[in-house]
Amino acid sequence: MFHMIFGLPGLYIIARVVWPLPWPFALKAAVAVLLLVASQYHLWSRLSSGSVFAPEFPRALVVLFNWAFGTLALLATMLIALDLVALAGRLVPGNGWIVPVGWRYAAAVLAMLLSAVAVQQALRVPPLKDVAIEIENLPPAFDGYRLLQLTDLHLSRLFPEPWAREVVARSNALGVDLVVITGDLIDGSLAARRADVEPLRDLRAPDGVWLIPGNHEYFFEYAAWMRRYADLGLSVLANRHTVLRRGDEALVLAGVTDLSAAHAGQPAHDLDAALAGAPADAPVILLDHQPRAAARAAAKGVALQLSGHTHGGMIAGLDRLVARANAGFVSGAYAVGGMTLYVNNGTGLWPGFALRLGPPSELTRITLRTAVRPRAR
Fold this sequence. Notes:
The protein has two domains: 2-123, no CATH class; 128-370, Metallo-dependent phosphatases (Purple Acid Phosphatase, chain A, domain 2, 4-Layer Sandwich), CATH 3.60.21.10. Helix 1 (2-18) crosses helix 4 and helix 4 packs antiparallel against helix 5 (101-123). The chain has helices spanning 2-18, 25-39, 41-49, 59-90, 101-123, 161-172, 190-197, 222-231, 271-275, 294-299, 318-324; strands spanning 128-135, 146-150, 178-182, 209-212, 235-236, 240-246, 249-255, 284-287, 304-307, 332-336, 339-343, 363-370. The termini are far apart. By secondary structure, the protein is an alpha/beta fold. The model has no long low-confidence stretch (mean pLDDT 94).
């Protein structure tokens, strides 16, 4: 059923654009077959690796599939809009509105161009985004503390070793105090991704590199991946915390497992366990892959939550739907009670839908500042 649903846009485009063309039957049939093949990208991914989340084709073919799949999605949306306009035109007295047939072919060209731009934006090594976040009662020694948030790298055939190495090089050049990775580092088995994750070994920061699992870690050999991350020198915060110190002053860095962990038979998301034993007077930075439990973190006194998962919504308009599935959070900073939630757009993207039109990827350097309370009047 999943794969049949994705075939519907292709069938719609065949009916509304391809079949009316004055081309020979054989040519129209060939184009129709190509469109249906493109619409079944996730089926071919499943057949190539056993999972829709890890296509194991050559990278050029993964790029081509994403472009074609994006073209189908965008064009089907445009055609539905044109058909709604045409339907409304029939209700207008007189001759009504007529949608020229050429508009449908112009839409096809536009969809192909937009999809190409969307794939290019998804594949680039992200630019730096600087964010300043104020925290009440931040110890003076941590005023100006800088951390780098990476998230949703989705290392795969689409985001392979050379891409990861460039991300690491740019990250190390930023001179931050701490690096955190908020989940979804990989798509694929340990055997398939061993070389692609190797560059992460070279990530450096004075206070270390810390990570939490995202939901995609649970799709592929979770325990083996956690061991592999540790072998790479990455410290895993799975329902636990560490204390960062500057002399006598402290900052707590806590991390939780993903909200989907229990469904995979792994330790459930447990904020209480992550905070147990933490210094009561130290501000808490929480790493939580999905943003939708932010209100509970705020109620527990967390000062700052860093999340990913949403990819910023990927496409303008689609971000509204992504927000609805994530308690209204999709991109950027939010005030949740007395806590700041920052939802990162992502460093990479799931290779099954690698399109960005609007929300950009980011390397996010966060500078902590002491909150300045307004003067009483």
